[in-house]
Amino acid sequence: MSNEVYELKDNPVAPLPVKLLYVTEAKYDRDWHSSFHSHFFTELIYVTKGKGFFNLLQEKIPIQENQLVIVNENIDHTEESDPKSWLEYIALGIQGVFLTDKNNKENAPVSIFTINREREDVQYILKMLLAEVKQQKKPDLLILHNLLEVLLVHLFRNNNVELEKNEANIFHKDVSTAKHYIDLNFRENITLDQLAKITHINKYYLAHSFKKSLSLSPIEYLNKVRIQNSKYLLESTNHPISFISSISGFSSASYFSQAFKRLENISPLQYRKKSKAIMENKK
């Protein structure tokens, strides 16, 4: 019998300064409508099936199965599926780090990698993360953190991903939960009481923490997200203003117009005409 021993040097290993905020599994269907949004943390998006586009405000980037998108904080973005090959992906929200591409000299806020050698390992770890958060009992945070560390080490080792600490922008978990809920559900009737119930903290403390972190109250941020979505629809569709108001989450067209003008210093109709004129001039 042969027996090989691989000794490990006794080097101290420090845990990575990261915190997993959420794990999301998304599948495109005909009702999918993703609007531009941003996070104050890093998001990893791994395409498990299909293809589509990762959209920035000024750029549209093709993405496909087995590609990993790294989106750093405060980057307006959205995902769009190819209608013939529906997009599916797993997304992780990670706090405390800034991830970059070693080969990108400009240090771009968004990096895209095709996962080849590590594909099976990466897919297995992501499935383990999903299984842990989906179980009925409370997920084990230690297991989740360790799985995240293993995933990141695989990316560092073979995919030119580089990590920078981002301790200056560590936000309270409750603020992150509330913001993420608003980003996903801004079309619904969201109240401060509802956000407090979701985060399990006092609504006044939540409002204070949210304002301190984002310089906006939860409701101000909600309106900002709704306006951002409406701007995209005003630019890209011919839907009536009243319809855009409704599907963006506003209770009435008049309130929508007031909120839009307060933030943009222009009415929705004027914004649409201006954006159409700019597009015509580019042709």
Automatic annotation (TrEMBL):
Keywords (A to Z) from UniProt: DNA-binding, Transcription, Transcription regulation
Gene3D superfamilies linked: Homeodomain-like, Jelly Rolls
GO molecular function per UniProt: DNA-binding transcription factor activity; sequence-specific DNA binding
Question: What is one Pfam family matched by this protein?
Answer: AraC_binding
**InterPro entries named among the record's database cross-references:** AraC-bd, Homeodomain-like_sf, HTH-like, HTH_AraC, HTH_AraC-typ_CS, RmlC-like_jellyroll
Describe the location of the HTH araC/xylS-type domain by residue ranges. Answer: 176-274
Q: Tell me the PROSITE patterns matching this sequence.
A: HTH_ARAC_FAMILY_1 (PS00041), HTH_ARAC_FAMILY_2 (PS01124)
- Would you tell me the protein name for this molecule? AraC family transcriptional regulator
The beginning of the lineage is:
Bacteria, Bacillati, Bacillota, Bacilli, Bacillales
